[in-house]
Write the structure tokens for this entry.
Amino acid sequence: MQTAERRADKNKTKNEAWRDPHAEAYVRIENVTKRFGDFVAVNNVSLKIFKGEIFCLLGGSGCGKSTLLRMMAGFESLSSGAIYLDGQDMAGVPPYDRPVNMMFQSYALFPHMTVEKNIAFGLEQEKGLTRSDIATRVTDILEIVKLESFAARKPHQLSGGQRQRVALARSLVKRPKLLLLDEPLGALDKKLREATQFELINIQEQLGVTFIVVTHDQEESMTLASRIGVMNRGEIVQIGTPTEIYEFPQNKFVADFIGSVNMFEGTMIEDLPDHVRIKSDELGSTIYVDHGISAAPGAIVYTAIRPEKINILRTPPADTTENCVKGVVKEIAYMGDVSIYLVRIDTGKTIRVTLPNVERLSDDERIAWDETVWLSWHGSSPVVVTQ
Amino acid sequence: MKTQGLFSKTMLGLGFVFLYVPILSMVFFSFNNSRLVTVWDAANSPTLKWYGRLFSDGAILSAAWLSIQVAAMTATGAVILGTLAGLVLSRFGPFKGRALLQGLTTAPLVMPEVITGLSMLLLFVSLEQLLQFMFGWQFDRGVATITIAHITFTMAYVTVVVQSRLASFDDSLEEAALDLGARPAKVFFRITVPLILPAILSGWLLAFTLSWDDLVVTQFVSGPGSNTLPMVIFSRVRLGVSPVVNALATIMVLIVALGVVLSAFLMRRQEQRRKREEQMAAAG
Amino acid sequence: MRTAGARTGTRESPGRLGPIWTFLFRYGPPRWTEYVLNNWSGQRLVIAIPYAWLLLFFLVPFLIVLKISFAEFSPLGRPPYEPVFQWLDEGALQIKLLVGSYVYLFNEPLYVSAWIYSVKVAFFSTIFCLALGYPMAYAIARAPPTQRNIFLMLIILPFWTSFLLRVYAWIGLLKTDGVINNVLQYFGIIDAPLAMMNTSFAVYIGIVYSYLPFMILPLYSNLEKHDLTLLEAANDLGAGPVRSFMRVTLPLSMPGVVAGSLLVFIPAVGEYVIPSLLGRTDQLMVAKLLSDEFFLNRDWPRASAVAIAMLLLLVVPIMLFQHFQNKELQAAKR
């Protein structure tokens, strides 16, 4: 998660337009609903996206993110609501008249045209560009995506990563103010994906285009996005920066969807402005949270603790009454950089703990299967949600 | 599995024998000197006599020329209308009367030809009457009516071919073109058509063959003096076998065989080249 | 579809000529084109072109046939029927509908036997075609891909050669001094030539022969899509080859069977060329009767009635066929 934090830091120096209540949104989605027969794909979504952002719509399949994107591009009509791009209502505006371009998941490169012609196609539709203008712009964009020597090739003569860059070049060459990307990195293998993620960010900053990215891959969204909009069942469930989404989920769904989480159901036994105590039967002990939360007295709350925020101790800590539980190590997955431990506690629940492999330990020094351990965490680690 | 495979393979072999013996026998006996065609005249055969007669037979040659012209015009018209219909049915959203259009485009595929022929003739007769009444025009049935009739029933085949090609087409290509600023007509001509060109071409050939070969509908809608090749052949073979017809058949079989083999060969070459290029790309 | 007249009806001053005529005279062809291009979206135009053609040249003719089937035969008329709709001098419209032609069709023994015979021949030809075509399609679908393409090419090749000539080829094989009789007599299998021409047997052969590709192709395209692991699973669970075929392959191939059968049965009922060249002279099929009524007797009303009756007979199979066509297209879209 180090990259996400670095990204968040970068944002602090940039213009965080969404924090300014008076800022003009570049894209305004207002109460947009889309129905296919009885099925509601997008349910009353409202959203503001600002210039220069990389905004990620994140969600599982069927959550409506692709439909929303297609509505912005003009390929689906709205059942109700309105979409404004740069202040203009896009109702009835066909895709070829909109100031946006889209990069398709399948890249949609024209198989019967060379790379050069593919990229030039969009420019040829614009009025007022001479042949040499077009040629110059094509060459320029090929340099930016580092495909200069591939201009005469046809799509089937390119590898997956090269095709993706052609698709990107083709949409960027028209210098759109807004670029919509549908699962841009989905078809690439892991290493290529990581490299391309950073390339995308660089290109975006270089050209100053606003990106809206649709993805189901939360790691991708954490790396790329300046803000993420988590979607579930056609609704936006939470909007925030990657850090906000990860560290401060507002509900069970977001907490569970992003990364792994241990969730405990419980009731509040002490509710004060500066701290809260929760009794959890699932956990078999009390949770102490060092900040106040707003919930009705006696309400059922859910406490989320991230695996990396839990410590494994071989000897019981001083205070075992709160934020501490005993258990037996049932599974260990060695991932190289971290190890994942599944610890079964007395109530029968399994807790997931992630520890970085900081030292090179020998086998008998490491934590072993069936070993009894104590899990503990700091009072600032739990996040409490009420839904 | 093995016995089942054997049974179906045997049937396949028998089936091919069944399919090809008549054709091969026709070809074989075209070189037979005897007028009786199937009684081999060993003394004077094989001979090219009948081919000579064929090429000096004015009726057949002029009918063949007429058939070619009609078939070419039909194929072109059928391809234009059929592609439009195929496009409409697979790409356009629901519109009023869509079901009827779907029905109208698939019905000719199975409609018995006597029904199509009779109905089109009666239409032409009614049109004749109408035009005569309104404008005093008089027109006779002939090449025009034959072509119109042929286009009507062959366009169904083109529609089916184009429709099934478009169904398996990735329509994100067309969306990408729209997104890049091209209007729908431009997208159709610069993206869709080049990519479905093989289907359009095979539709053209299909319509050509069907028109060239048609007898029943043509008999109904033709006029005096417009005899197509099938009409001439039919009138000859009703009376029995005719060696000149054997010669004609052999030539047609040769042309078709050449065409099919050539196209298969070309397609194979293209496939291989494509595979090689894709492998090169994957390697980097 | 709105017509031009409907749009401008209120605009034009009502002269002696109706609004449509005024419109037509005021705006020549270039203006029409301009009007259409301005007021009709491109999409509607694209839909309109094939639609208009099919309506005019395919649908309207059926309506005309229907009309004439109710007309009265007038042997000396040009055309040979009394007008169905007639404006009388008093300004009344006289509609004369005779059902005599239809009554005749269902009573006259010649016709009744022809209907039955046509359906019988078409039905059994379909069965025979299926019996030969299914194993062939199966063998091709299970063959390795390179062989498959060659086989398909060999199946399609006869289809591209003339239908008429291929039927003609059978004359040469089946006649009394034809190839088959010669060969059988040469080998001493028979003493006297068999009479195979102008029999029902010849018609069956002709239909099966000509329509075999139409049966094989839909069957093949269905069988080719079968997931062979299903059969492996069936075998693994204990079903022998016959059993797995009956319980797995055959049911899955039903859409192909139906499509192929309809593609053979429906046109076969109305087949004209094959019975003319190879068939019996004492028992005719319906298409020949229609042709004779029309060309020989010049009885247009009766010929039209035959056509309508044939259509009614086939309307259910035709709709079935279209239903299956649509399903195949939907499946291909996935």
User: Anything to note?
Assistant: The longest strand of chain C covers residues 85-87. Chains C and A do not touch (no CB pair under 8 Å). Residues 1-17 of chain C have pLDDT under 50 and may be disordered.
